[in-house]
Design brief:
Elements lengths: L2 E5 L2 E3 L5 E8 L7 E7 L6 E6 L10 E3 L7 E6 L4 E6 L8 E8 L9 E4 L3 E5 L2
Parallel strand pairs: 2-11
Antiparallel strand pairs: 1-3, 3-8, 4-5, 4-9, 5-6, 7-8, 9-10, 9-11
Length: 126
């Protein structure tokens, strides 16, 4: 059974930082594209970042949404079957439930991802 478990959400003040992790089990993470998406209340789920598959321990091509580029960093550790999202200079508009996902195609389109985590809440507020 494939499972993705996100950790690290919470409450942070504007301008602060937060790190998320997503541990993947039931499949070999190195052979999958791993992405982060988010959904704010009353809004559709949107793409945040994705990192391509790689045979190396880390690395892979990365892609970010315009709204987070330069503030968020996605990385992976294949030895740990884990993908990370480091979020810096957080803004209130980053408040959302963050989901990690695994897929086969390097894309911002969520229809290319077929395994999803349960999500973790990130709230940016003073």
């Amino acid at each position: 059974q494939v499972m993705l478990v996100e950790r690290g959400g919470g409450l942070v003040q504007p301008g602060g930082s937060l790190g998320l992790s997503c541990e993947v089990s039931g499949l070999t993470a190195s052979s999958r594209v791993l992405g982060w998406f988010r959904q704010a209340p009353g809004k559709e789920r949107e793409f945040v970042a994705t990192i391509g598959e790689t045979i190396d321990r880390a690395g892979g091509n990365t892609l970010y949404s315009v709204s987070v580029k330069g503030r968020f960093t996605i990385t992976r550790d294949n030895a740990k079957n884990t993908v990370y999202l480091q979020m810096n200079n957080l803004k209130p508009e980053d408040t959302a439930v963050y989901y990690c996902a695994a897929g086969r195609h390097f894309s911002h389109d969520d229809s290319h991802y077929f395994h999803w985590g349960q999500g973790t809440q990130v709230t940016v507020s003073s």
